[in-house]
Amino acid sequence: MSKTVEFYFDLGSPATYLAYTQLPKICEQTDSQLLYIPILLGGVFKATGNASPATVPAKGHYMFQDLDRFAKRYGVPLKFNPHFPINTLMLMRAVTAMQLRHPERFLAFIDCLFKALWVDGRSLDEPATVGAVLTQNNFDPNEVLALTADEEVKAALKTNTEKAVQRGVFGAPSMFVNNQLFFGQDRLDFVLEALS
């Protein structure tokens, strides 16, 4: 039976972006399956009483220095987004919609949005910017926007988020291997160990 990593993610987290760049390689290396589970980080924070490390100025400053170190180690681009923190409700509904309605384009969709946020530093709080990014990447922004209003899509994101909290998720990225929780992109060595 194939091993699985359940990857609970929200686009608005730079640490999640870094985990996203590394998990496919880890899964390929260990012949494991990567399951992407979109959640709303704001909903997780509200339910658990947690908050972004960026809300503590000294911790936030350190966090971005540390993430930069990891990006260099991984050999991936990372740029601090000047618009951080981003309200990701609409984005994560769009991600959920693509996973449900267009699974064949799901990875290309999240890839272009992660890149827009954490490589290009785009303001994905602004619908016009989101529309431009989607158009540049051959997605129809009107179709995507319409999907974010779909009741089934809204319910799916809400359910994912609630189930994540029930499983003990308090932030992103969170990964499960055999029901064991690993939190943070700096715990990928433990994910690899659990899969090996």
Automatic annotation (TrEMBL):
Q: Does the keyword Mitochondrion apply?
A: no
Quote the Pfam families the UniProt record gives: DSBA
**MF annotations from Gene Ontology:** 2-hydroxychromene-2-carboxylate isomerase activity; glutathione peroxidase activity; glutathione transferase activity
What GO biological process, any one, is recorded here? naphthalene catabolic process
Point out the signal peptide segment.
none
What is catalysed by this protein? 2-hydroxychromene-2-carboxylate = (3E)-4-(2-hydroxyphenyl)-2-oxobut-3-enoate; RX + glutathione = an S-substituted glutathione + a halide anion + H(+)
Q: What EC number(s) does the entry state?
A: 5.99.1.4
Q: Which InterPro entries match?
A: DSBA-like_thioredoxin_dom (IPR001853), GST_Kappa/NadH (IPR051924), HCCAis_GSTk (IPR014440), NahD-like (IPR044087), Thioredoxin-like_sf (IPR036249)
Q: Which residues cross the membrane?
A: none
Family of this protein: Belongs to the GST superfamily. NadH family.
User: How is this protein named in the record?
Assistant: 2-hydroxychromene-2-carboxylate isomerase
What species is this protein from?
A: Pseudomonas reinekei
